[in-house]
Amino acid sequence: MKIKNLTLIIAAMLSASCANDNDFFPSFDDNCNWKTSLDEIITDNDQLFENRGIKITTIKFLKDISVDRELFFGDQYGSFPVYSKNDSVFTVITYNELVKNSDMYSFDTTSVVKNINRLIENSEDYEVVELTWLCENKTYNSLAFFNTRTGELEYDNMLFNMSTISRYERESFSRTIVITETESGVADSGSDCVVYQIGNSILAKSGINWTVRGTWDRNLYYDYEDDYYIYYNVYSTFTVSHVQMTPISYILSDDDSDVFYETRDYSVSGSSTYNFTYAIWAGPQGGLNLNQFGDHTAFLISEPPRVFASRFSEGEGRLVSTVKMVSPTNGIIKRPKK
Asked: Which terminus of the chain has fewer CB atoms gathered within 10 Å of its CB, N or C?
């Protein structure tokens, strides 16, 4: 709805939506105001709010409010949705809490401050609406700023920073609301190998190549634009589907050497943490006993590494368990204007 240039002005003049055809510079009637804009946001994202365990409980129009930084960062309205860095859990905290524990949360301070400074400089251009949110049985307040002329939402501490918002006037300044993209991808990969050799002669190798596969959820926040591109801050989280493990197996002589490998993927689909275990060994025939009696019996991949190490008298081997979270990433991307 935000008019950018003469072409858009002419297009708006020809449109019957929210515009007066008799005016060169379109005026917007009561069908296009902060109420209709907010209703659209809530309707479009109702399911997404529910999935995040968050909802708007109260809406209150504020008249003649004085706009300053305290409104955005103070205890009364300075609430922000964030993701924890260690496990990507969504929560809402105050700005003061965020500053005290900045190393624990992912937060795009640059874009937030830039937009808040712009609003303060042009505070007379906006109608201000107080939103009360419920999240994790706690209430939080934020201030939503709507363009007085167009009724368009231009900033809110919660809505601007929430990576659950998927659509609202993307072609206008409300591109600052996040655009969510999902794509399959790889988060991590690696390999491990043991070698059995005599002198310079390699008789056997055993190992695995592993790749963590899943889905990248990329949340694009409008930053700025020039004549050719729109620039976004992108905040990405990864959910694991599985760990793909491919054996490495080589034996020079079937009579003199042997290999062993076993893998197990314990990763939980949909989480941000991958968890897998593998056992590998390469050595001479008879150098590995998987069915000893005494302190331990048949081999189990869940056994301690020291137990597995005691099973072979010759050769090289190890049992390794890996548990690691895929941390969210931040960056800048640009998209050509269409």
From this structure: C
